[in-house]
TrEMBL record:
SUPFAM superfamilies: Multidrug resistance efflux transporter EmrE. Belongs to the EamA transporter family. Pfam families: EamA. Residues 283-304 are annotated as: Disordered. Keywords: Cell membrane, Membrane, Transmembrane, Transmembrane helix. This is DMT family transporter.
Length: 346
């Protein structure tokens, strides 16, 4: 069931761009979409977090940190993502955004949280080459450089958001609820400054916004957490690579979006780079080798630290993604790189 939960989570995150475009077709503005999405998702996640006691005894500093990540980090990333979605095809937005796991890996190396390795250098090169091919032309119609830059900006902002989020120590559910609530506050204030947010769009708009908030945010996040608890972070992150594939296929079916052969190649390079980053490192011990008690304790402690970091970083996706690069050396800890949301993406 764990693998199924992860795949359903990836499908939910992957459908986000399609729900967003369908909302735009119903007359929903970017700000209205973000306001309703985070308002509804934040309320549901807060209710679940309170019911499960996830917010109980949280230090005030942690609460402010979670809200601040939503107010500044996730709100900026989501604003760039959905602004890009209003200008270019959903498939292009998904493939450009999906370079962020490799950017997170590169950022972790620069910040000396991880060591550089041949595998990571190859992944970075593949990702950059893939993005170059994806940006080489429009999927359908005229190429919009502003839209492409907005999507790339979303990936860059998301990279910083994840690297910061990895340092916030609280349960993933609590962080998801606080981040969504903080982002809601940002777009509520933005609408107020602009003279109000127009919610007088077609009834179909509310349907797609509900799907965006409940399916591609709340359900996708909770399914990812449930799946990761059963199959572990490495398997969960690999299964999450289905997300942009779902976006590309759904956009082709619903909107008739078609990638050029060069862009298909670029997308394949990007996904290959992510797979290289996410693939688990080879075990340090041979099969059947029984470690000493002291070594076993060290291994268990290290595994606990890795699991904790993964759980915190999964939230950084808030759509939580979900990407933790495994080092080539077994002694090196995993690093975040997010389904989630992812997610997402946005």
């Amino acid at each position: 069931m764990g693998a199924l939960f992860c795949l359903l989570s990836a499908a939910g995150f992957g459908a986000m761009a399609v729900f967003g475009k369908l909302s735009y077709d119903a007359g929903v503005s970017v700000n209205a979409l973000l306001l309703v999405r985070f308002g509804l998702a934040g309320a549901v996640l807060l209710a679940i977090a309170l019911a499960r006691g996830a917010l109980r005894n949280l230090p005030r500093r942690a609460v402010f940190a979670g809200l601040g990540m939503g107010v500044f980090g996730y709100a900026a990333q989501a604003g760039l993502y959905f602004s890009a979605l209003a200008r270019i095809d959903a498939s292009l937005v998904a493939l450009i955004l999906y370079v962020y796991p490799v950017l997170v890996m590169a950022g972790a190396v620069v910040l000396r949280r991880e060591r550089a390795s041949r595998r990571r250098v190859w992944a970075l090169g593949l990702a950059l080459g893939g993005i170059g091919l994806v940006l080489s032309g429009a999927a359908t119609g005229r190429f919009d450089i502003v839209g492409a830059l907005l999507a790339l900006g979303a990936a860059i902002v998301y990279t910083g958001y994840i690297l910061i989020g990895d340092r916030v120590d609280m349960s993933p559910l609590a962080l998801a609820a606080l981040v969504c609530s903080g982002a809601f506050g940002t777009f509520l204030l933005t609408g107020f400054v602009r003279g109000g947010t127009d919610l007088g769009f077609a009834p179909a708009g509310w349907l797609w916004l509900g799907a965006l908030a409940l399916v591609s945010t709340v359900a996708a996040i909770l399914l990812f957490f449930a799946g990761m608890a059963r199959v572990g972070p490495s398997v969960a992150s690999i299964l999450s690579i289905l997300e942009p594939v779902v976006t590309v296929i759904a956009a082709a079916v619903v909107f008739g979006e078609v990638l050029t052969p060069i862009q298909w190649l670029g997308g394949a390079l990007v996904l290959s780079a992510v797979l290289i980053v996410q693939w688990p490192s080879r075990p340090s011990a041979q099969a059947g080798h029984r470690p000493s008690t002291q070594a076993g304790r060290r291994s268990s402690a290290q595994a606990g630290r890795q699991t904790g970091a993964v759980a915190r970083s999964a939230l950084a996706r808030v759509a939580a993604l979900r990407f933790f690069g495994a080092d080539d050396q077994a002694a090196t800890h995993n690093s975040c790189a997010c389904s989630a949301p992812k997610s997402p993406a946005a």
